[in-house]
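Input chain follows. Return structure tokens only.
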Amino acid sequence: MASHRRPKQPSRTRVTVLTATAAAAVALTSQAAQAAPKQDKKDVKEQVDKLYEEAEQATEKYNGAKEKQDKLEKQVGDLQDNVARGQQDLNKLRDGLGSMATAQYRTGGIDPSVQLILSSDPDTYLDKASTLDQVSGKQAESLRKIGDKQRTLKQQREEASTKLQDLADTRKALGDKKKQIQGKLTKARNLLNTLTEQERAKLAQAEKERANRASSRVDLGSDVPDSQRAAAALAAAKTKIGSPYVWGATGPSSFDCSGLTGWAYQQAGVQLPRISQDQANAGTQIGRGELKPGDLVMFYSDLHHIGLYAGNGQVLHAPKPGANVRYESMDNMPFQYGVRV
């Protein structure tokens, strides 16, 4: 028979012990939380700078995908226009054959070749080219033109279809790169928010002072540009000192790194490719000792950062998110090589 005894109540002593244990656990947790080391300001800055560098890497990939998208959109538009015009031409040629058929019918019958081309499946006449010998010279020429036009339209439609798929893939890649950049910048912002307001203000002031020193006290030496184009590009870039870095921007009020170099050379009458890796192939590769003001300067092993050589080991560039266009020592970044446009 089942027991119906009431559960044994915990003794007062046991309750006291449990309560004391719980209180001790809370106290230890509180002490641990209070003892948790505060994020070091220097560590935060290093992590933020790293995230900004990664965001810039993603930005150049975004720029490449954006450039590809723009080209594909133009190619698709041109192909679609060509197909539309080609279809109009084909319709006119068929209308011409229709007039011939009408005339033949009135005079006693329609030529078999004309019947074929006007049938529901006119493409089949290409497999029976021998029938061209049975029609007049004028009809044969019209049939040949129609055949050529149909083959061209088929090729253009297939090419447009392929380009449209490429465009869809590129748009997806563009969206992925945009999310990646925004994710890096959000992480950087969240890290900065772990600092106190005074610490953030101190970092901002240090960045501002660094930019002011770089812009006002930099010694550019006495080197002269190798060409008028290089001189004009560097002169144009100097007018943008203080403009903010904005990813994907190509001027005239904000720039990313390759946006600044591309804009500067555009003012000198030279059209550079959009991204830094392509701009690296826009001229003759040179070593550090050969650099002249206005030459392009490549940084990092994947060439994701670029600037303009300003003289005396200084580069004029759009550095990173949160910074403005400024001079900076080339020693602050891993130099790869120069490019003389």
